[in-house]
Amino acid sequence: MAESNGKKNWLKKLVRSSTALVGNLNAAIGQRKVSAEVLAEIEESLILADLGHRMAAEIVAQLAKHRSEKSLDADAIRILAANHIAAKLSGHQARLDSAHLAAEARASGKPVVVMLVGANGSGKTTTIGKLASELAADGVKTMVAACDTFRAAAVEQLAEWCLRSGVACLRGDGNSDPAALAYRALETAEAEQYQVLLIDTAGRLHTKGELMAELSKMERVLQKRDPLAPHHIVMVLDATMGQTAIKQLEVFTLAVKVTSLIITKLDGTAKAGIAVALAEQFKIPIVAIGLGEAIADLQAFDADEFARALLGIGNEG
């Protein structure tokens, strides 16, 4: 996925989130002295942005230490808040780009298996298509296994992504067992010396126990072929779901070992702060964020740039 380069224009796509949060902060602060009442309103604004109660309380505690400073205006508060968020998130970011996956494949001499999981409508199939396109563009020999055998439209969508990017796509019929298809894909990827195997899975509600159990089965079946597979289990989460995303991740982590997160649809929500709450609560790194439909809109996660964009710093112009 594309790396960030300084203050990239794509970060301005967080404008709905930053505009809402900055507007609420400005309304809370105004021209008033930063009193206990103002701090309480700031905390409420941060919670409304879905940063989570813990993070909001921590930021307000930091602000309280500076409340006597004459320079503590709205801009200074935004900078202090952004710095605190960036410091927290810096420990919860990782890389899952072409260079890292190719290096991992060279080191092991086997295909790196990346399984994507998530709820219905999270943008998982589109995300895996973007990943496949980027890997192919960077010369990484990649295969995709379309294991969402319940939804023909998802298979067709993924096959179209693969066709456009020249990536091999293994698909079964509508009655295929997803775990068996994943196993066959890994077998083929090993035999044909692919570097990366991307496995798409059916979107499932976290409340459906039998479907969650199926994910666990896929993990076990893959391990019969390679005890370390899948090497990465990436959960794709829809930022517009807000606090529901927390419950989804909680349940998914009980079924499989989620190793990293991709947060999508951050361009369409006023609550991008959910990314902060997810990483902080579960201590699972974010590898990318989605800010639109184009391939370039899937961007490697950068804690500092994300925090600054969330607080509207550098989004002007």
Could you characterize what this model shows?
Helix content is 49%, strand content 14%. The chain is of the alpha/beta class. α10 links the parallel β5 (232-238) and β6 (260-264). α3 (53-65) crosses α4 (74-89), α4 packs antiparallel against α12 and α10 runs parallel beside α11. It starts with 14 loop residues before the first helix and ends in a 7-residue tail after the last helix.
Number of helices: 12
Strand order of the largest sheet: 3-2-4-1-5-6-7-8
Work out the helicity level: 40-55%
What characterizes the major β-sheet?
Answer: 8 strands, mixed
Instruction: Write down the Rg.
Output: 21 Å
Any low-confidence stretches, pLDDT <50, length ≥5? none
Rounded mean pLDDT is: 88
Using DSSP, what is the number of strands? 8
Distance between the termini: 26 Å
Percent of residues in beta strands? 5-15%
Write down the secondary-structure element order.
HHHHHEHEHEHEHEHEHEEH
Q: Structural class of the helix and strand makeup?
A: alpha/beta
Shape: elongated
Give the helix/strand layout:
Elements: H1 15-29, H2 36-48, H3 53-65, H4 74-89, H5 98-108, E1 112-118, H6 124-137, E2 142-147, H7 152-165, E3 168-171, H8 178-191, E4 196-201, H9 209-225, E5 232-238, H10 244-255, E6 260-264, H11 274-282, E7 286-290, E8 298-300, H12 303-310
Parallel strand pairs: 1-4, 1-5, 2-3, 2-4, 5-6, 6-7
Antiparallel strand pairs: 7-8
Main attributes?
317 residues; eight-stranded mixed beta sheet; 14% strand; elongated
